[in-house]
Amino acid sequence: MMATDFTPVASLLGGALIGASAVMLMAAKGRIAGVSGITVRLLPPYSDSEFAGRLAFILGIVVAPLVVLLVTGTAPVPTIETGPALLVLAGLLVGFGSVWGNGCTSGHGVCGLSRLSVRSLVATLTFMATAMATVFLTRHVF
Amino acid sequence: MSVLVQFAIGLVFGLGLVIAGMSNPAKVLNFLDLAAIPSGGWDPSLAFVMAGAIAVTFIGFRLVLRRPQPIFGGTFHLPSATEIDARIVLGPAIFGVGWGLAGFCPGPAFTALTTGGSAAAFFIVAMLLGMSGARWLANRPSALLPATPHA
Predict the structure, then answer these.
(1) What is the interface pTM, i.e. ipTM, of the complex?
(2) Distance CA B9, CA B102 (A)
(3) Above 80 in pLDDT, residue A47?
(4) Domain boundaries, given as residue ranges, for chain A
(5) Do B93 and B111 belong together in one domain?
(6) Are B14 and A116 in contact (CB under 8 A)?
């Protein structure tokens, strides 16, 4: 496993930008900036005509590293140490669980907690706990 | 116009993730690894991301929701469910296991699509399949499952 530096200032600043984005989406469209909720609504069947806007929001996230590359000359390269089989399993679980539980880190963890939603608090504590337990098992037991 | 604005808002979201270091799953996994605290390998950065995001959103939502309606019209779509049912525990429990396996949740996975190579693409395709599966199951008429489709 790769060691990473503790980056309190950059992380607080980045977090504030994520929050600003959530506030702007609420102001502009009246929608919760939940990435899993926006993503699943890109898949058929469609219940409204907001497809283009949702796709644009996700594309904005996708191109962000390229904008960083253009501005700073270097793009941050993610360290992915998980093998292909486990990555696919992880993707299935993340996709299924986020839709089954109506939200992910952004929808429940940021927007929901900011709205003081008890459901989002339950969801956030639950996924933090199972994620920490999973990392403990994969790194320290198996 | 609305679509362009949503692209820009998504871009701010993605820049936030990248600046925060959350586009790197290693950083996420090192946060989730509480057993690494004694050895100094724990990276508390993710807690600062959440703190920064919630501080801005907590205040910002209150200001925005005083307005009569969103800038581009329509109404504010706020989740109305308050019930603590099995789904609100089971879904996040499953999500957390996947998050802990790879260090990717949906937003960071999208930022890794351009820089993370085929691994990120594998994850995203699987994630979309999992989302479709959950929605299919949620919308399936069955006495065993909650009848209200949320997703």
Answers:
(1) 0.97
(2) 26
(3) yes
(4) 8-141
(5) yes
(6) no
Nearest CA in chain A to B118: A84
Report pLDDT for B85.
Answer: 96
A98 contact partners, CB below 8 Å, separation of at least 6: A36, A40, A104, A107, B91, B95, B105, B106, B131, B134
pLDDT 10s digits, A73-95: 998 899 999 999 999 999 999 99
Does B11 share its domain with B62?
yes
Nearest chain B residue (CA) to A108: B92
Residues B89 and B131 in one domain: yes
Q: Does B145 touch chain A (CB under 8 A)?
A: no
Given this model, what pLDDT does residue B143 score?
Answer: 47
Spatial neighbors of A68 by CB under 8 A, at least 6 apart, are: A74, A75, A76, B15, B18, B19
The dihedrals phi and psi of A52, each to the nearest 5 degrees, come to -60, -45
- pLDDT, tens digit, for every residue of A131-142? 999 999 999 998
DSSP 8-state code for residue A101: T
Domain tally, chain B:
2
Q: Mean pLDDT for chain B?
A: 93
Q: What is the pLDDT of residue A87?
A: 97
CA of B28, closest CA in chain A: separation in Å? 9
B19-69 per-position pLDDT tens digit: 999 999 999 999 999 999 999 999 999 999 999 999 999 999 999 999 999
Quick check: A94 and B81 CB within 8 A?
no
- The yes-or-no verdict on residue A113 having pLDDT over 80 is yes
Pair B87, B135 in one domain: yes
Which range of residues forms the domain containing residue B116? 83-151
* B37–chain A Cβ distance below 8 A for any pair: no
